[in-house]
Design goal:
The protein has helices at residues 40-48, 70-74, 92-96, 109-122, 139-150, 169-186, 197-203, 230-237, and strands at 2-11, 14-24, 29-33, 55-60, 63-64, 77-80, 157-161, 189-193, 206-211, 214-220. The chain is α/β, with parallel strands linked by helices and 248 residues long. It folds into 2 domains: 1-76 and 156-248, 3-Layer(aba) Sandwich (Rossmann fold); 91-154, no CATH class. Helix 4 packs across helix 5, helix 5 (139-150) packs parallel to helix 6 (169-186) and helix 6 (169-186) runs parallel beside helix 7 (197-203). It is globular, with a radius of gyration of 18 Å.
Length: 248
């Protein structure tokens, strides 16, 4: 479904991606892990077309993303942003229905509202939150609204950017379970970037570790704890000592 071939990206003298290669099979969930500043977000932005790689190719369903129609391309995706990224001035249901009310195939006001409430219920929120504003909701509820928005148009591919950032351990567990259930239920292809190992274990079918601009290790989640890769072992176990240098 998604394939990166030798993707490079630099900003001035900062070489962020130095030849990233990985693929995500249709209907599977890949989690990209790595320390802060290793290029996880840049990789995601390259796939979305928000950043243009300096070198290499990104294919979605076999099509080079740089040569596809932008609107048709973006229609395939749903996205759960790290900070929720809800529109403060819109009600909850209007946030969820944002794409339903715009562009080709847009829904009527009443149909969009009905669909939005259906998606809110799917993520465990009652319809009575539909007319509230984001500021009236807790952080966990806002994250669920963001998830409802991500799945509103039943996308083929869903991206999750640090889905549990800012949440307590219990709510993180709830969000992780919801993400896993929804991805399996929809048959969607999922790509998550995170450094939260509880999310990795809950969401991933496969894991790719990004370090120093390249994929250091990739494999199924079952191999995570016995990979024999010193970089992955240090990261997974949170050790200060190892080949990954901590900034002191």
């Amino acid at each position: 479904m998604i394939k990166l071939e030798n993707v490079h990206k630099s900003f001035a003298n900062n070489n962020v991606l130095k030849g990233v290669n990985f693929e995500i099979k249709k209907g599977s969930s890949l989690v990209v892990i790595g320390g802060s500043g290793t290029g996880k977000s840049v990789t995601l932005k390259c796939v979305l077309g928000l950043v243009t790689p300096d070198k290499g190719r990104i294919l979605v369903e076999g099509q080079d993303v740089s040569k596809t129609d932008r609107d048709d391309f973006l229609a395939k995706f749903g996205m759960l942003f790290q900070g929720g990224a809800l529109f403060d001035s819109l009600s909850v249901w209007q946030n969820v229905a944002f794409r339903l009310l715009r562009g080709p195939g847009k829904k009527s006001y009443d149909d969009a509202r009905e669909l939005a409430i259906e998606k809110l219920r799917r993520v465990g929120l009652n319809g009575n939150v539909a007319d509230k504003f984001p500021a009236e909701l807790s952080g966990g509820m806002q994250k669920r609204v963001g998830l409802a928005r991500a799945i509103a148009v039943d996308p083929e591919i869903i991206f999750f950017d640090e889905p549990t950032t800012g949440l307590d351990p219990i709510m993180s567990g709830v969000i992780n379970e919801l993400i896993r259930e929804i991805v399996v239920e929809m048959g969607a292809t999922a790509m998550t970037i995170t450094h939260d190992m509880s999310s990795v274990r809950a969401i991933a079918d496969n894991v790719a570790m990004l370090h120093d601009g390249v994929i250091q290790w990739t494999g199924p989640i079952a191999d995570l704890d016995h990979s024999n890769d010193p970089y992955l072992d240090q990261f997974v176990n949170g050790r200060a000592d190892g080949p990954i240098e901590a900034i002191r």
